[in-house]
Specification:
The structure holds 2 protein chains of 2 kinds.
Chain A (H helix, E strand, L loop, with lengths): L1 H18 L6 H20 L1 H15 L2 H16 L6 H15 L2 H19 L1
Chain B lengths: L1 H8 L3 H33 L9 H6 L22 E3 L6 E3 L3 H9 L5 H12 L2 H15 L2 H19 L2 H13 L8 H6 L11 H10 L23 H12 L8 H25 L9 H10 L7 H16 L3 H34 L1
Classes of the chains: A mainly alpha, B mainly alpha.
């Protein structure tokens, strides 16, 4: 898990750099183009929607959704029913949601993405 | 695409993993965002906390997960032990047997109404029926009625045994109420206790009178339940009771009975004449039986008394229906035969005496 997260964080950096409009280096530019083409492929083939649906079903099945709702409840009670915003919820809940995804679901999803990439790389 | 192939297939395996992780995290974030939108909408619409309750009710309606009880913490086969009290007879009946019991007890069902009516009719005068039964027993000692009684007693329990349910309930009743004889309808019925005619409707009386003797006893005020040929009562008594109960317009006795009576008399005469043929072999059998009978009756030495003739008639009449009377009939024949034999001897003697005197 530690390795995965470190990789993940390292990977996010160019993404953030691109979003924030910082001029990317040459390699970063390559990286960004690669990502863009992969995203395009995922959307074009409809694989992204399929993956989304699969993830939603798996998470509901294993109780992740109920755990997340409980987290949301805590946040709402903390902030007050009237004053809570979507931003508050996303900021508070997303890190926990990422951590709460069961390993089996994560593995299955990664497997599917890898299979897709290797299939469409050639 | 060629550009992408190189980094993916070469030593940059970590870059591929990084891309995969990137896609995955995007998907998870997407799911989180969707959930956040959902929750936020629920909060603003006011239905997010609808399923929340206070602690007391949570405790009260907590789902019980224990063996032998349902989710409410109740024993689920409780109903097996439930008992209901019968509103009619005040006994406790198992809930599963309550409906069949009520059918019998109230007499609402198809089969039970007959029994229940009879019970209602007989329950009114329990003590009387007891004494009546004793009276009947005394009268039943009469040999003539024995066969009929036996037949009736045999047939009625058979009827009951046709239905296993009824016979079972009968057993049950005998077990519980063995001491109180009067509460058992079958016993009363079998003992031929009689029916109190006041409790019956006109149609019931009519149907009863077509099948039964129906003469009302002076002692018990109950109707005789034997057949039309019951030896305790005479035809006159039967006619009188039909006149009394049904009025003069109704035929006094069914045709079958009248036929039987009209048939019996020549039969008896035939018997007598047959006996006489043996006595007088010179008389041809083609002669009419009645004339011979009248001829013989005119002879003072063998003329049977009127009661005897009735006796013989009765004997013959029963012999048609009951095998057991054959023996008795034969006995009577023998009696009559021996009487005739005596007379013959005496008459021979007289005749020879007369011959001697004339000589």
């Amino acid at each position: 898990m530690v390795v995965v997260f470190s990789l993940f964080d390292a990977d996010r950096l160019p993404n953030l750099a691109r979003r924030s409009g910082i001029s990317p280096t040459n390699t970063m530019n390559k990286e960004a183009r690669l990502k863009a083409s992969i995203n395009q492929k995922l959307t074009e083939t409809g694989e992204r929607d399929r993956l989304k649906e699969l993830l939603r079903a798996k998470l509901t099945e294993c109780g992740w959704k109920d755990q997340m709702k409980a987290q949301c409840k805590d946040v709402i009670k903390q902030k007050g029913l009237e004053h809570v915003t979507v931003e508050d919820l996303v900021v508070e809940v997303t890190p926990k949601g990422r951590a709460l995804v069961p390993d089996s679901v994560k593995k299955e999803l990664l497997q599917r993405i890898r299979a897709f990439l290797t299939q469409h790389a050639s | 695409m060629k550009m992408e192939e190189k980094p993916l297939s070469g030593p940059d395996n970590t870059r591929l993993e990084a891309l995969i992780q990137d896609v995955y995290s995007e998907l998870v974030e997407d799911a989180c965002l969707g959930l956040c939108f959902e929750v936020h909408r629920a909060v603003k619409q006011g239905y997010f906390f609808l399923d929340e309750t206070d602690q007391d009710s949570i405790k009260e309606f907590e789902i019980v997960d224990q063996p032998g009880v349902d989710i409410f913490g109740q024993v689920f086969n409780q109903w097996k032990n439930k008992e209901c009290e019968c509103p009619n007879c005040k006994r406790l009946i198992a809930a599963s047997r309550f409906a069949p019991h009520l059918e019998k007890c109230l007499g609402m069902g198809r089969n039970s109404s007959r029994i229940a009516n009879r019970r209602l009719a007989t329950n009114n005068n329990i003590s009387k029926s007891e004494s009546d039964q004793e009276d009947n027993d005394d009268l039943n000692d009469n040999d003539w009625s024995y066969g009929a009684e036996k037949k009736a007693k045999k047939r009625r329990p058979d009827k009951n045994q046709n239905s296993p349910r009824r016979s079972k309930s009968l057993k049950h009743k005998n077990g519980e109420l063995g001491t109180s004889l009067s509460s058992d309808p079958y016993k009363q019925y079998n003992y031929n206790a009689g029916i109190s005619y006041e409790s019956l409707g006109p149609n019931e009386i009519r149907s009863l009178l077509t099948t039964q003797c129906g003469v009302i006893s002076e002692h018990t005020k109950r109707m005789c339940t034997r057949s039309h040929r019951c030896p305790q009562h005479t035809d006159d008594q039967r006619r009188a009771i039909r006149l009394f109960l049904l009025g003069p317009s109704v035929p006094t006795l069914p045709d079958a009975d009248v036929e039987g009576d009209s048939f019996d008399i020549p039969n008896g005469q035939a018997l007598l004449s047959r006996l006489q043929w043996e006595d007088f072999p010179d008389v041809s059998p083609t002669d009419s039986a009645s004339s011979k009978a009248s001829k013989e009756m005119s002879t003072p030495s063998i003329k049977p008394k009127p009661e005897d003739l009735g006796f013989i008639n009765k004997c013959i009449r029963f012999s048609h229906r009951h095998q057991s009377f054959r023996f008795q009939e034969a006995q009577k024949e023998e009696e009559v035969g021996s009487e005739l034999e005596q007379w013959r001897r005496r008459s021979k003697y007289d005749w020879s005496q007369q011959q001697q005197l004339s000589e």
